[in-house]
Amino acid sequence: MALDLTLLTVSGSLRAVSSNGAVLDAVAALAPSHVRVTRFDGLADLPAFNPDLDGEDATPPPAVARWRAAIAGADALVICSPEYAHGVPGALKNALDWLVSGPDVPGLPVAVVNATTRAHIAHASLIETLRTMSATVVEEASVRLPLAPDQRTAEAILADPVASTLLTDALAALLRSAAERPGRVHAPPRPGAS
């Protein structure tokens, strides 16, 4: 019997319609029935990271509490992000900064997916950041997809045999890592989480 798993997906793009969002929609469509897929769309709501707001006795801003609760409740994470000026988009890096001092990322299986094969600098940088945070970056699940500019819907991605196979194999590797993670217990919500 398959273990029920929660998969959190996050787009590094804030655009309403993007190839990154389409990739995440395709991931959700490919997920087996025992996997609950939740997309976090609140990166734009997060304030700029400020350690003064994150001390031991501090109550984090509500948007931060929601973000941390989403991570705490996940068995695995898929991040699909564009590359801006050879870097990780600021909103995504800011979101990760809010997680650095917390207990929820170490050991968390993560897939880093890119919607193009041309963006390799930010892809590598994002993997390095996640490893520094002690996330388990699943190599077999971290792929760069050879999407054409017009493949901006999940349907177009799923209809492409190369892209859909890459995503199917990546998702399978990520879910294996999540299912094999020893002693996974969802952390209690942090103070201020709703």
Task: Describe the overall structure.
By secondary structure, the protein is of the alpha/beta class. The chain has one domain: Flavodoxin domain (Rossmann fold), CATH 3.40.50. Helices cover 36% and strands 13% of the residues. It is built from six helices and five strands; from the N terminus they run E-H-E-H-E-H-E-H-E-H-H. It has a five-stranded parallel β-sheet with strand order 2-1-3-4-5, with helices on both faces. Strand 4, helix 4 and strand 5 form a beta-alpha-beta unit. It is globular, with a radius of gyration of 16 Å. Residues 186-194 have low confidence and may be disordered.
SSE layout and pairing:
Layout (H helix, E strand, L loop, with lengths): L4 E7 L7 H12 L4 E6 L21 H11 L3 E5 L9 H8 L11 E5 L7 H12 L3 E2 L16 H6 L1 H20 L14
Number of domain modules: 1
Strand order of the largest sheet: 2-1-3-4-5
Radius of gyration: 16 Å
CATH architecture: 3-Layer(aba) Sandwich
* CATH level-4 homologous superfamily: Flavodoxin domain
N to C succession of SSEs: EHEHEHEHEHH
Span of the ends, CA to CA: 32 Å
What features would you highlight for this structure?
single chain; 13% strand; 6 helices; disordered C terminus; 5 strands; 194 residues; five-stranded parallel β-sheet; Rossmann fold; alpha/beta
How is this structure best summarized?
Helix content is 36%, strand content 13%. By secondary structure, it is of the alpha/beta class.
